[in-house]
Amino acid sequence: MTLASKRVVVTGGSGFLGRHVVAAFQTEGCAVSAPRKAEYDLTHEADAERMYADLQPDLVVHLAAVVGGIGANRESPGRFFFENVMLGALVMEQARRAGVEKFVGIGTICAYPKLAPVPFREQDLWNGYPEETNAPYGIAKKMLLVQGQAYRQQYGFNAIHLLPVNLYGPHDNFDPQSSHVIPALIRKCFEAVERGAPAVECWGTGNATREFLFVEDCARAIVLASERYDGPEPVNVGAGFEIRIRDLAGLVAELTGFTGQLIFDPSKPDGQPRRMLDVTRARELFDFTATTDFRAGLERTIDWYRTHRT
Q1: Residue 85: partners with Cβ closer than 8 Å, 6 or more residues away
Q2: Which of 40, 67, 226, 244 is least enclosed, having the fewest CB within 10 Å?
Q3: Annotated active-site positions, please?
Q4: Is pTM, for the whole model, over 0.85?
Q5: Residues β-bridged to residue 105
Protein backbone atom coordinates (compact mmCIF):
# COMPACT_ATOMS: atom_id res chain seq x y z
CA MET A 1 0.00 0.00 0.00
CA THR A 2 1.41 3.38 -1.02
CA LEU A 3 0.74 5.65 1.94
CA ALA A 4 1.39 9.10 0.51
CA SER A 5 -1.83 11.14 0.20
CA LYS A 6 -3.97 8.39 1.77
CA ARG A 7 -6.75 9.41 4.17
CA VAL A 8 -5.99 7.65 7.46
CA VAL A 9 -8.19 7.36 10.54
CA VAL A 10 -6.46 6.46 13.80
CA THR A 11 -9.03 5.56 16.45
CA GLY A 12 -7.59 6.38 19.85
CA GLY A 13 -5.30 8.81 18.06
CA SER A 14 -5.13 11.21 20.99
CA GLY A 15 -3.93 8.50 23.37
CA PHE A 16 -0.46 7.41 24.37
CA LEU A 17 0.40 5.28 21.34
CA GLY A 18 -2.09 7.06 19.09
CA ARG A 19 -0.42 10.46 19.09
CA HIS A 20 2.86 8.86 18.01
CA VAL A 21 1.10 6.86 15.29
CA VAL A 22 -0.63 10.00 13.98
CA ALA A 23 2.73 11.80 13.78
CA ALA A 24 4.36 8.83 12.01
CA PHE A 25 1.65 8.72 9.30
CA GLN A 26 1.79 12.48 8.85
CA THR A 27 5.51 12.14 8.17
CA GLU A 28 4.58 9.77 5.33
CA GLY A 29 2.40 12.45 3.72
CA CYS A 30 -0.96 11.08 4.86
CA ALA A 31 -4.01 13.12 5.79
CA VAL A 32 -4.68 11.81 9.30
CA SER A 33 -7.82 12.12 11.42
CA ALA A 34 -7.92 11.16 15.10
CA PRO A 35 -11.60 11.17 16.10
CA ARG A 36 -12.34 11.77 19.79
CA LYS A 37 -14.92 9.97 21.90
CA ALA A 38 -16.76 13.28 22.40
CA GLU A 39 -17.36 13.35 18.63
CA TYR A 40 -17.95 9.64 17.99
CA ASP A 41 -18.61 7.06 20.70
CA LEU A 42 -17.45 4.03 18.76
CA THR A 43 -19.17 1.58 21.11
CA HIS A 44 -22.41 2.79 19.43
CA GLU A 45 -23.15 1.64 15.88
CA ALA A 46 -24.69 4.93 14.74
CA ASP A 47 -21.59 6.87 15.80
CA ALA A 48 -19.25 4.40 14.06
CA GLU A 49 -21.29 4.64 10.86
CA ARG A 50 -21.32 8.44 11.05
CA MET A 51 -17.54 8.56 11.54
CA TYR A 52 -16.96 6.74 8.27
CA ALA A 53 -19.45 8.91 6.42
CA ASP A 54 -17.74 12.05 7.71
CA LEU A 55 -14.06 11.08 7.37
CA GLN A 56 -14.09 8.62 4.42
CA PRO A 57 -10.75 6.94 5.22
CA ASP A 58 -8.71 4.73 2.90
CA LEU A 59 -6.90 3.16 5.86
CA VAL A 60 -8.03 2.62 9.46
CA VAL A 61 -5.67 1.93 12.36
CA HIS A 62 -7.81 0.78 15.28
CA LEU A 63 -6.07 1.70 18.53
CA ALA A 64 -9.04 2.82 20.64
CA ALA A 65 -9.31 0.62 23.72
CA VAL A 66 -10.13 0.62 27.41
CA VAL A 67 -6.81 -0.25 29.04
CA GLY A 68 -5.06 -0.28 32.39
CA GLY A 69 -2.71 -2.14 34.68
CA ILE A 70 -3.44 -5.22 36.79
CA GLY A 71 -5.44 -3.25 39.37
CA ALA A 72 -7.70 -1.62 36.78
CA ASN A 73 -8.26 -4.96 35.03
CA ARG A 74 -9.28 -6.60 38.32
CA GLU A 75 -11.68 -3.78 39.23
CA SER A 76 -13.46 -3.48 35.86
CA PRO A 77 -13.30 -6.80 33.98
CA GLY A 78 -16.84 -6.47 32.63
CA ARG A 79 -16.32 -2.97 31.28
CA PHE A 80 -12.94 -3.89 29.82
CA PHE A 81 -14.50 -6.85 28.01
CA PHE A 82 -17.67 -5.17 26.77
CA GLU A 83 -16.24 -1.87 25.56
CA ASN A 84 -13.27 -3.46 23.80
CA VAL A 85 -15.46 -6.05 22.08
CA MET A 86 -17.91 -3.39 20.92
CA LEU A 87 -15.16 -1.06 19.74
CA GLY A 88 -13.54 -3.73 17.60
CA ALA A 89 -16.73 -5.25 16.21
CA LEU A 90 -18.34 -1.96 15.20
CA VAL A 91 -15.25 -0.17 13.90
CA MET A 92 -14.32 -3.09 11.65
CA GLU A 93 -17.88 -3.83 10.48
CA GLN A 94 -18.47 -0.21 9.49
CA ALA A 95 -15.04 -0.13 7.80
CA ARG A 96 -16.11 -3.09 5.67
CA ARG A 97 -19.43 -1.46 4.79
CA ALA A 98 -17.69 1.81 3.91
CA GLY A 99 -15.28 0.06 1.51
CA VAL A 100 -12.13 0.90 3.48
CA GLU A 101 -9.03 -0.27 1.60
CA LYS A 102 -7.16 -1.64 4.63
CA PHE A 103 -7.79 -2.16 8.34
CA VAL A 104 -4.97 -2.44 10.87
CA GLY A 105 -6.15 -4.03 14.11
CA ILE A 106 -3.97 -3.52 17.17
CA GLY A 107 -4.23 -6.41 19.61
CA THR A 108 -2.37 -7.16 22.82
CA ILE A 109 0.03 -9.75 24.18
CA CYS A 110 -2.44 -10.15 27.05
CA ALA A 111 -4.19 -12.44 24.58
CA TYR A 112 -1.41 -15.04 24.89
CA PRO A 113 -1.90 -18.08 27.15
CA LYS A 114 -0.75 -17.58 30.73
CA LEU A 115 1.95 -20.24 30.41
CA ALA A 116 2.87 -19.82 26.75
CA PRO A 117 6.44 -20.94 25.98
CA VAL A 118 8.91 -18.04 26.02
CA PRO A 119 9.53 -16.36 23.66
CA PHE A 120 5.86 -16.10 22.63
CA ARG A 121 5.33 -17.21 19.05
CA GLU A 122 2.24 -16.26 17.10
CA GLN A 123 1.33 -19.90 16.47
CA ASP A 124 0.94 -20.41 20.26
CA LEU A 125 -1.78 -17.77 20.59
CA TRP A 126 -4.61 -20.31 20.90
CA ASN A 127 -2.84 -22.91 23.05
CA GLY A 128 -4.37 -21.95 26.41
CA TYR A 129 -6.31 -19.40 28.46
CA PRO A 130 -4.81 -15.94 29.14
CA GLU A 131 -3.54 -14.86 32.55
CA GLU A 132 -6.66 -14.45 34.70
CA THR A 133 -6.24 -10.83 35.85
CA ASN A 134 -6.41 -9.46 32.31
CA ALA A 135 -8.17 -12.28 30.45
CA PRO A 136 -11.39 -10.32 29.73
CA TYR A 137 -9.37 -7.56 28.08
CA GLY A 138 -7.07 -9.98 26.27
CA ILE A 139 -9.89 -12.11 24.90
CA ALA A 140 -11.89 -9.06 23.82
CA LYS A 141 -8.92 -7.82 21.81
CA LYS A 142 -8.35 -11.34 20.45
CA MET A 143 -11.80 -11.18 18.87
CA LEU A 144 -10.45 -8.45 16.59
CA LEU A 145 -8.14 -11.06 15.05
CA VAL A 146 -10.99 -13.56 14.63
CA GLN A 147 -13.21 -10.93 13.05
CA GLY A 148 -10.51 -9.79 10.64
CA GLN A 149 -9.75 -13.33 9.49
CA ALA A 150 -13.46 -14.11 9.07
CA TYR A 151 -14.02 -10.92 7.06
CA ARG A 152 -11.01 -11.69 4.88
CA GLN A 153 -12.43 -15.17 4.18
CA GLN A 154 -16.00 -14.08 3.44
CA TYR A 155 -15.66 -10.56 2.06
CA GLY A 156 -12.04 -10.32 0.87
CA PHE A 157 -11.54 -7.55 3.43
CA ASN A 158 -7.88 -6.63 3.96
CA ALA A 159 -7.54 -6.69 7.76
CA ILE A 160 -4.20 -7.30 9.46
CA HIS A 161 -3.51 -7.84 13.16
CA LEU A 162 -0.51 -6.70 15.20
CA LEU A 163 0.37 -7.75 18.76
CA PRO A 164 2.48 -5.05 20.47
CA VAL A 165 4.32 -5.84 23.66
CA ASN A 166 4.18 -3.52 26.72
CA LEU A 167 4.91 0.04 25.61
CA TYR A 168 6.56 2.95 27.40
CA GLY A 169 7.67 6.46 26.51
CA PRO A 170 6.63 10.14 26.49
CA HIS A 171 2.89 10.83 26.96
CA ASP A 172 2.34 7.58 28.86
CA ASN A 173 -0.45 7.34 31.43
CA PHE A 174 0.93 8.17 34.89
CA ASP A 175 -2.40 7.95 36.75
CA PRO A 176 -1.75 5.67 39.76
CA GLN A 177 -5.20 4.10 39.43
CA SER A 178 -4.76 2.87 35.86
CA SER A 179 -1.09 3.11 34.82
CA HIS A 180 1.13 0.24 33.76
CA VAL A 181 4.31 -0.74 35.55
CA ILE A 182 6.90 1.69 34.12
CA PRO A 183 4.93 4.94 34.59
CA ALA A 184 3.71 3.69 37.98
CA LEU A 185 7.28 3.11 39.17
CA ILE A 186 8.48 6.43 37.78
CA ARG A 187 5.75 8.35 39.59
CA LYS A 188 6.26 6.46 42.86
CA CYS A 189 10.00 7.14 42.80
CA PHE A 190 9.58 10.84 42.00
CA GLU A 191 7.08 11.29 44.83
CA ALA A 192 9.27 9.33 47.26
CA VAL A 193 12.23 11.60 46.45
CA GLU A 194 10.11 14.70 47.01
CA ARG A 195 8.78 13.46 50.36
CA GLY A 196 12.07 12.01 51.49
CA ALA A 197 10.33 8.65 51.90
CA PRO A 198 12.61 5.78 52.90
CA ALA A 199 10.88 3.15 50.75
CA VAL A 200 8.76 2.55 47.67
CA GLU A 201 6.25 -0.32 47.60
CA CYS A 202 6.04 -2.42 44.44
CA TRP A 203 3.33 -4.92 43.50
CA GLY A 204 4.11 -8.63 43.44
CA THR A 205 7.25 -10.60 44.10
CA GLY A 206 9.33 -8.76 41.53
CA ASN A 207 10.21 -12.04 39.84
CA ALA A 208 7.87 -11.76 36.86
CA THR A 209 9.50 -10.64 33.63
CA ARG A 210 8.29 -8.23 31.00
CA GLU A 211 9.40 -7.01 27.60
CA PHE A 212 9.11 -3.31 26.80
CA LEU A 213 9.03 -1.47 23.48
CA PHE A 214 9.60 2.27 23.13
CA VAL A 215 6.40 3.85 21.83
CA GLU A 216 8.03 5.56 18.83
CA ASP A 217 9.40 2.20 17.68
CA CYS A 218 5.89 0.74 17.88
CA ALA A 219 4.46 3.61 15.81
CA ARG A 220 7.10 2.96 13.15
CA ALA A 221 6.18 -0.74 13.13
CA ILE A 222 2.51 0.11 12.54
CA VAL A 223 3.39 2.33 9.58
CA LEU A 224 5.65 -0.35 8.09
CA ALA A 225 2.98 -3.04 8.48
CA SER A 226 0.34 -0.77 6.94
CA GLU A 227 2.54 -0.26 3.94
CA ARG A 228 4.07 -3.73 3.49
CA TYR A 229 1.98 -6.46 5.14
CA ASP A 230 -1.31 -7.89 3.83
CA GLY A 231 -1.48 -11.33 5.42
CA PRO A 232 -4.11 -12.98 7.65
CA GLU A 233 -1.75 -14.11 10.43
CA PRO A 234 -1.09 -12.04 13.57
CA VAL A 235 2.36 -10.50 13.96
CA ASN A 236 4.22 -9.77 17.20
CA VAL A 237 5.69 -6.28 17.58
CA GLY A 238 8.37 -6.09 20.25
CA ALA A 239 11.97 -5.54 21.18
CA GLY A 240 12.91 -9.18 21.76
CA PHE A 241 14.21 -9.01 25.36
CA GLU A 242 12.85 -9.48 28.89
CA ILE A 243 13.67 -7.90 32.25
CA ARG A 244 12.60 -8.90 35.77
CA ILE A 245 10.29 -6.38 37.44
CA ARG A 246 12.70 -6.31 40.40
CA ASP A 247 15.54 -5.26 38.09
CA LEU A 248 13.30 -2.77 36.30
CA ALA A 249 12.38 -1.14 39.62
CA GLY A 250 16.05 -0.84 40.52
CA LEU A 251 16.83 0.81 37.18
CA VAL A 252 13.95 3.28 37.50
CA ALA A 253 15.05 4.11 41.05
CA GLU A 254 18.59 4.77 39.82
CA LEU A 255 17.47 7.01 36.94
CA THR A 256 15.04 9.02 39.07
CA GLY A 257 17.49 9.51 41.92
CA PHE A 258 15.61 7.44 44.49
CA THR A 259 18.11 5.82 46.88
CA GLY A 260 15.72 4.27 49.40
CA GLN A 261 14.44 0.71 49.73
CA LEU A 262 12.26 -1.10 47.19
CA ILE A 263 9.72 -3.27 49.03
CA PHE A 264 7.86 -5.94 47.06
CA ASP A 265 4.41 -7.00 48.25
CA PRO A 266 3.83 -10.68 47.38
CA SER A 267 0.16 -10.40 48.42
CA LYS A 268 -0.37 -8.41 45.21
CA PRO A 269 -0.51 -10.33 41.90
CA ASP A 270 2.47 -10.66 39.57
CA GLY A 271 0.30 -11.13 36.50
CA GLN A 272 1.72 -13.34 33.77
CA PRO A 273 4.94 -15.02 34.98
CA ARG A 274 7.02 -14.18 31.90
CA ARG A 275 6.57 -12.14 28.76
CA MET A 276 8.91 -11.94 25.81
CA LEU A 277 8.04 -12.10 22.13
CA ASP A 278 9.54 -13.89 19.19
CA VAL A 279 9.86 -10.97 16.78
CA THR A 280 11.07 -12.96 13.76
CA ARG A 281 7.84 -12.60 11.80
CA ALA A 282 7.83 -8.76 11.95
CA ARG A 283 11.43 -8.62 10.78
CA GLU A 284 10.80 -10.99 7.88
CA LEU A 285 7.39 -9.69 6.75
CA PHE A 286 7.81 -5.92 6.98
CA ASP A 287 11.42 -5.35 8.03
CA PHE A 288 10.75 -4.06 11.54
CA THR A 289 13.42 -4.13 14.24
CA ALA A 290 13.30 -2.07 17.44
CA THR A 291 16.16 0.43 17.60
CA THR A 292 15.73 2.32 20.91
CA ASP A 293 18.06 1.22 23.71
CA PHE A 294 16.00 0.43 26.82
CA ARG A 295 17.98 2.58 29.25
CA ALA A 296 17.97 5.50 26.81
CA GLY A 297 14.23 5.10 26.30
CA LEU A 298 13.66 5.13 30.07
CA GLU A 299 15.73 8.28 30.39
CA ARG A 300 13.62 10.00 27.72
CA THR A 301 10.42 8.88 29.46
CA ILE A 302 11.61 10.12 32.84
CA ASP A 303 12.74 13.45 31.36
CA TRP A 304 9.30 13.89 29.75
CA TYR A 305 7.54 13.16 33.03
CA ARG A 306 9.82 15.52 34.95
CA THR A 307 8.91 18.32 32.52
CA HIS A 308 5.17 17.65 32.21
CA ARG A 309 4.11 16.23 35.58
CA THR A 310 2.50 19.44 36.84
Answers
A1: 140, 143
A2: 244
A3: 137
A4: yes
A5: 62, 161
